[in-house]
Design brief:
2 copies of one chain form a homodimer. The first copy, chain A, is α/β, with parallel strands linked by helices. The first copy, chain A, has helices spanning about 20-30, 50-55, 70, 120-125, 135-150, 155-160, 170-185, 215-230, 320-340, 380-395, 400-410, and strands at about 10-15, 35-40, 45, 65, 80, 85-90, 95, 100-105, 105-110, 115, 165-170, 200-205, 230-235, 240-245, 245-250, 255, 260, 265-270, 285, 290-295, 295-300, 305, 355-360, 365-370, 375.
Chain lengths: ~425, ~425
C-alpha cells in the first residue's frame, strides 16, 4: 500500500480538531512535503485548563484562546477550514463537512469531548457545563447575575437561593470552579448594599469518596482542606439525581439553588460513532497500541477522543492536555517518517510520560502530584502559576501579554466581570421601592 | 417646594443610565447625604469611543468596560440596580422597572441613544450597528467569519462578496471602523491560503458631501486622504436606499457585499417618549437652559438623550462623551447644592466647553480639531493615543493594565481575533475537495 497512489497530488493529512492533540500533530508535519488540512468547528485553539478562570471573571476569552490561523500562519503546507466534520467514511477515505467530501491519505481524529449528563439531558438546561469559550461566558453571566438578583430580592429564602452555587463534580474543573467562585464571592462585599456576598454558599457535590480522585489520596485530602478554608461546602457520597430550575436533588436532600454548574462527566465527540468501529462506554474509540484504528493504519485517534493505554504500564492514558499533546507528537512523527520514506515504518507503541498533575483551588492554594512528589498550598500554587505562565508565553508568543496577565492575575483583579449576552436578564423579582 | 417633604427618609436621586453622563452625575453626589439609585440595563459602564476596536478585534471587551458596582464600590450612598426603566411618571415622581415603582426626589435621565435606521427597520437585520459590547462582538464575528467564508468559496463573484465590507455612515464611528477593517485585512495575508486578504474592499458610504461633517473641512479632507491611503473606497453623495442580505443599493448602484455595517444614525432612548414632553426629531428631550424638563425642575436630561443648547453660543451640545460628562457634572452640582441648602438655588445656564474633536483612522493616522488647531497624521494620532491611554488609566484605575493595553495596541497586535457566539457559522459554501 502506497499512501500517494490514489491521488496524483501531494499526500494529504486531514486533522480533525484544533485542540492540544491536533495542533501538536500539525506542528510535527511542518517541514514535510505534504498537504495538511486542519478542520475545526471553532476558529480558535483554546487553552482549556484555564477556561474556569474565564467562567469566574479573572481572565478574558482572548487571554486563553489563539486563532488557529495565527498559530499556523507560517506553516505554509497547512490549510485550515472552519467547519464541523459530520462523518468519516473509512473505506472511501473521506471526511464530510456540510455534506461535502474532503479526501485524506492520513486521518487524525482529535475532536475531543463534550459534557455528558449521563442520559439526564434535562440537566443540561439548568446546569451548564464548561467546554467552550461560549460556555465560559454563559457561566460567567449566570454567576454574576445571581448577585444582581439577590441584591433586589426581598424574600429571604429566594435571596438565599440566589446566593447558593452548586458545582456538580469534584474533579479538577469542579474544584477549581468551586474555589474560584468562593473567592469571588468573598472579594466583592463592597459592591452590594443589600447583600452580604460573604454569606454566599458554594457547594461542591462529588458522588465518590473524595475529590480529585485521579490524584493520590494525600492530594485529595489537601484539596479538601483548602476548599474548606475558602468556605466551600463539600458533599461526598450522594449522587445528584435531579437538576431542577430551582435546585438539585442530592441523595435524600433538596438544595435550593438558582445556580448549578456541571463539571461531572464528559463523553467523547459523537464523530467516533460514524466510524463503525469499537467504542468504549464514553464513546471513545478503542485504539491500537500505535493509536491507530484497528484495520486502518492510516487513521489515528488521539486525546480525549481515544481510549488508549500506556504501552509501558497498561494504564489508560488520562484525558488531560499532556495526553493529547504526547499523542499528537507521536502520531505526527509516524506520519512524517512514513511520508518521507514513502512506506510504512515500524511504529512502536505509544507510551505516556506522566509529567504530573496540578489543580489550583484558589490564590496560594493548590495541589500538585509530580512523579510521586506531593505538594500542596503555596508551593503547589507557585508551581502551578509558573507552569501556566510559561505555557501562556509560549502559547501566545507574546511576553508582554503573558506578563500583564500574570500581573493582573497575581494581584487578584477580576477585570472581566462583565455580563454579556442575552439582554433579558434573569432577575425574577423586580426592584422594589424599598 | 421642599425636596424632602414627601418621604420621611433621605432624599433620593434616581439616575437612569450608567454611561458617561450618569456616572459623572453620581460622582458629584459622593459626599452628599442622599440616597442615590443608579439604574442601568447593563452591569457595566462602557468606554464607547473605543468600541470599534472591540468590533475590529484589537481590544477585549473588558479593556473598555468596567462593572458599575466596581466603579462605585466605595460610594456607600449609591445603590445600583440592573434593570431597564420602562417609563417615567413625572406627576407621581416614580420610574418603573419591570412594572415596579422606584420613587425619586430628583431624577436624572441619561439613557443615551440607540441606532436609527430611519424607519428602514429591515436594514437592522443585515447591517448591525455598534452601541453595546454585544454589538461589537457580533460585528467582530461577522467580520472575521467573512474571511473564513471566502477561504472556502470557489465561485469568484461570491468570494468577492465575502471580501467586500460596506460601512454606512461617514461620522467618526464609520471612519474608524472602515480604517480599522482595512488595516486588519492588510495585516493577515499569511493566515489564508486561497484568499489574498489584501484584495478585500472596504467601502465607506456617506450621503453628504464629506466625511466627519462635525469636524472642520480641513479635517474632513485629511481624513479622506488617510482613508484612501489605507485603501478604503469612499462614496460621497448617494444615499443607501436598501440593505439586502446580499448587498446594498446605493443611488443607482448595487454593491454585492456579505458584510454591511451601520454607522449612520442614532436616535434617543425611547424612554423620552413616556415623559409626555416635547421631543426633537431624534426623540431627544428638549430641555431648559439648566438641562431640566420644562415644568419639572427636579428632572434633568443629559447626554445623548437631551436636545440641549450651549447657553453661550446657542449651538447644540454635541452627542459626544464630553457633552454627557459636562452635563452630568453640572446637574450633579446643582442637586448637591440644593440638597445641602435644602432649597432651590439659582442654577445658571449650562455652557459646553469644547475640548476638541479627535478621530482615528488607523495606526499613525488620525485627525484632530482642538479649539481651532487642526492636526492630522501622526501628531493627531499621538494626541489621540495619549488622551485615550490617560483616560483608560483613570477609568480602570490600573496602570498595569493600561500599560499592557497600550503596549499591545501600539505594537499592533490583534489578539482578540476570536469568533464567539452562534455556532451555526454563516459559511454558505461548504469546503470542497480542492
Amino acid at each position: 500500500m502506497n499512501m500517494k497512489s490514489k491521488r496524483n497530488k501531494k499526500p494529504r493529512v486531514v486533522i480533525v480538531g484544533g485542540g492540544f492533540g491536533g495542533v501538536a500533530t500539525a506542528k510535527q508535519l511542518k517541514k514535510t512535503d505534504v498537504d495538511v488540512v486542519l478542520i475545526d468547528r471553532r476558529n480558535y485553539h483554546l487553552f482549556q485548563p484555564l477556561l474556569y478562570q474565564v467562567a469566574t471573571a479573572a481572565l478574558n476569552p482572548s487571554d486563553i484562546a489563539a486563532p488557529i490561523r495565527k498559530i499556523f500562519r507560517k506553516q505554509k503546507n497547512l490549510r485550515s477550514i472552519l467547519g464541523a466534520v459530520e462523518n468519516v467514511d473509512l473505506e472511501a477515505r473521506k471526511v464530510y463537512v456540510k455534506g461535502q467530501p474532503v479526501s485524506y491519505d492520513y486521518l487524525v481524529l482529535a475532536a475531543g469531548a463534550t459534557h455528558s449528563y449521563f442520559g439526564n439531558d434535562q440537566s443540561a438546561e439548568h446546569a451548564p457545563g464548561l467546554k467552550t469559550l461560549d460556555d465560559a461566558t454563559e457561566i460567567r453571566r449566570k454567576f454574576l447575575l445571581s448577585f444582581e438578583a439577590a441584591e433586589v430580592e426581598t424574600d429571604e429564602a429566594a435571596k438565599e437561593a440566589c446566593l447558593t452555587f452548586v458545582v456538580i463534580g469534584g474533579g479538577p474543573t469542579g474544584c477549581e470552579m468551586a474555589g474560584a467562585m468562593a473567592e469571588v464571592a468573598r472579594s466583592i462585599p463592597d459592591d452590594f448594599r443589600h447583600v452580604d456576598t460573604k454569606t454566599a454558599r458554594v457547594i461542591l457535590i462529588q458522588s465518590g469518596k473524595r475529590v480529585l480522585k485521579s490524584f493520590p489520596q494525600e492530594s485529595s485530602d489537601a484539596a479538601y482542606d483548602q476548599l474548606k478554608e475558602l468556605g466551600v461546602e463539600i458533599k461526598l457520597g450522594p449522587r445528584v439525581t435531579e437538576v431542577r430550575k430551582d435546585g438539585v436533588v442530592c441523595g435524600e436532600e433538596f438544595i435550593a439553588a438558582n445556580n448549578v454548574f456541571w463539571a461531572a462527566g464528559v463523553k467523547s465527540s459523537p464523530l467516533g460513532e460514524t466510524l463503525g468501529v469499537e467504542l468504549d462506554r464514553s464513546g471513545r474509540v478503542i485504539v491500537e497500541p500505535d493509536l491507530s484504528v484497528t484495520g486502518h493504519p492510516n487513521v489515528f485517534v488521539i486525546g480525549d477522543q481515544a481510549s488508549a493505554k500506556d504501552a509501558k504500564t497498561g494504564d489508560p492514558v488520562p484525558g488531560v492536555a499532556q495526553g493529547a499533546i504526547q499523542g499528537g507528537d507521536y502520531v505526527g512523527k509516524i506520519i512524517r517518517k512514513e511520508l518521507e520514506d514513502d512506506t510504512w515504518v515500524e511504529r512502536g507503541e505509544f507510551t505516556y510520560f506522566d509529567k504530573g498533575n496540578l489543580a489550583t483551588i484558589g490564590r496560594n492554594k493548590a495541589v500538585a502530584d509530580i512523579r510521586g512528589f506531593k505538594l500542596s498550598g503555596f508551593p503547589a500554587w507557585f508551581i502551578w502559576a509558573v507552569v501556566h505562565i510559561m505555557f501562556l508565553v509560549n502559547f501566545r508568543s507574546k511576553i508582554s501579554v503573558a506578563f500583564s496577565w500574570a500581573w493582573t492575575y497575581l494581584l487578584g483583579s477580576r477585570g472581566a466581570r462583565l455580563i454579556t449576552g442575552k439582554s433579558d436578564y434573569v432577575i425574577k423579582q423586580p426592584p422594589e421601592d424599598h
